[in-house]
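Quick review question:
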């Protein structure tokens, strides 16, 4: 564990792409390939069983030599194949790496790894979404100042803000699920011709896909990297959603705003200022999400690949996708924790929104007084009412309510915060979320 792993390698996704997980995925592909070869009649079933048994016990394999020799081979598959052949013996070695090339095993293992990591990441996104749904439901009609371009704008509700978070998180989950459902096996042999597969390469590829619960393809995707690009795009989008929610929390938790707070025992303190409570989980979620775009760019730039196997671009994908899964998974884990500990201050929200409503209310008062006082005098009278409210520490609405020279109800109604169809939209987002959750059961 490194010094910064607590922040940037948090949650289940990080464990799902560890070195141990990489070895498990590589071995899972080799074992499935042996079984698929046996199913298509290319190798004896007893040999495939021996390979499967060897792959099931990585602790018995000389994986240290794989690590030591991986750089010399350009990737870890050649030394892994030799270790497996030694482990099963000369007779059963016929079922090791049947008709495959290193890229077949590495690409397929990478997607298996990604599938496991996305499952862990999705669990954290789902937890964050469920908490956002609870916030939207609880605070459906609680008024909060809407802010555009970092300035107060018109009133909205905290329920609608949380419903926006919810819709984004659910949307990110759906996009990731669509990509994962279509992840394909890679199998084509040295240059994609299946020449070393004894004439059974196409059915072997289909059998391998079935063994690993991946989709099959008509041709190898060795240099057409759409599966990796699709993963990168969906993960980058998820990071963007997480970052948006996290920065909302950070901004709302500012001392001068104080409309929410993160509550977590033993977290949020400052080394120099004992009075501070920092929204550490939201800050960490944002930090992790910020790393994603660069990794997405690396993966998209690696799509340009030469002939039947790229020289370098392909290799750059392994740590980039591993890192992307780790950082987006960490961001999702932090966000789930941030929202779980979020405490909205609805009184503070209402007070801020009410203060922002002084302008419309003062304008409504001036409009009501204009027919009797004239526009100039009405303006001055409304301004005097605002000063009276501020000097006395009373809400402007209370000062207006005490007047006898206007239709108080009409003036107050004109100055009431208008949140439009916020509630109906919250209900719609919650209904969509409920349908998604029900569909996952």
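Suggested answer, residue by residue:
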């Amino acid at each position: 564990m490194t010094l910064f792993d607590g922040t940037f390698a948090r949650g289940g996704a990080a464990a799902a792409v560890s070195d141990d997980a990489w070895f498990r995925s590589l071995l899972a592909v080799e074992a499935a390939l042996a079984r698929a070869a046996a199913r298509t009649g290319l190798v004896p079933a007893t040999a495939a069983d021996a390979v499967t048994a060897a792959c099931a016990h990585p602790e018995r394999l000389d994986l240290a030599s794989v690590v030591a020799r991986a750089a010399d081979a350009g990737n870890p598959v050649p030394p892994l194949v030799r270790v497996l052949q030694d482990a099963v013996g000369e007779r059963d070695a016929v079922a090791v790496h049947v008709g495959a090339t290193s890229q077949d095993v590495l690409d397929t293992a990478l997607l298996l790894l990604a599938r496991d990591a996305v499952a862990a990441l999705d669990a954290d996104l789902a937890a964050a979404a469920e908490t956002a749904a609870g916030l939207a439901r609880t605070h459906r009609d609680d008024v909060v100042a809407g802010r555009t371009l970092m300035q107060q704008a018109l009133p909205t509700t905290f329920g609608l803000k949380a419903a926006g978070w919810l819709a984004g998180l659910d949307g990110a989950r759906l996009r990731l699920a669509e990509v994962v459902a279509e992840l394909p096996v890679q199998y084509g042999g040295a240059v994609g011709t299946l020449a070393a597969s004894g004439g059974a390469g196409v059915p072997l590829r289909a059998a391998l896909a079935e063994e690993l619960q991946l989709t099959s393809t008509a041709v190898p995707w060795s240099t057409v990297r759409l599966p990796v690009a699709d993963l990168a795009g969906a993960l980058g989008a998820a990071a963007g959603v997480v970052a948006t929610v996290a920065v909302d929390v950070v901004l709302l938790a500012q001392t001068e705003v104080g409309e929410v707070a993160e509550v977590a025992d033993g977290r949020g303190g400052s080394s120099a200022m004992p009075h501070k409570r920092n929204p550490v989980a939201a800050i960490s979620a944002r930090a992790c999400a910020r790393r994603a775009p660069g990794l997405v760019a690396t993966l998209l730039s690696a799509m340009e690949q030469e002939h039947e196997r790229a020289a370098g671009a392909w290799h750059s994908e392994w740590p980039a996708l591993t890192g992307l899964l780790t950082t987006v998974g960490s961001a999702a884990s932090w966000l789930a924790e941030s929202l779980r500990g979020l405490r909205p201050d609805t009184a503070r929200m209402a007070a801020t929104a009410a203060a922002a409503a002084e302008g419309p209310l003062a304008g409504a008062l001036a409009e009501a007084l204009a027919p009797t006082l004239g526009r100039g005098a009405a303006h001055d009278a409304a301004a005097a009412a605002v000063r009276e409210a501020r000097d006395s520490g009373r809400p402007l609405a209370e000062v207006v309510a005490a007047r006898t020279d206007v239709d108080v109800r009409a003036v107050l109604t004109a100055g009431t915060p208008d949140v439009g169809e916020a509630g109906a939209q919250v209900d719609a987002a919650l209904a969509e979320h409920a349908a998604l959750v029900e569909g996952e059961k």
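Why it works: The domain at 5-348 is CATH 1.20.200.10 (Fumarase C; Chain A, domain 2). Residues 270-275 have pLDDT under 50 and may be disordered.
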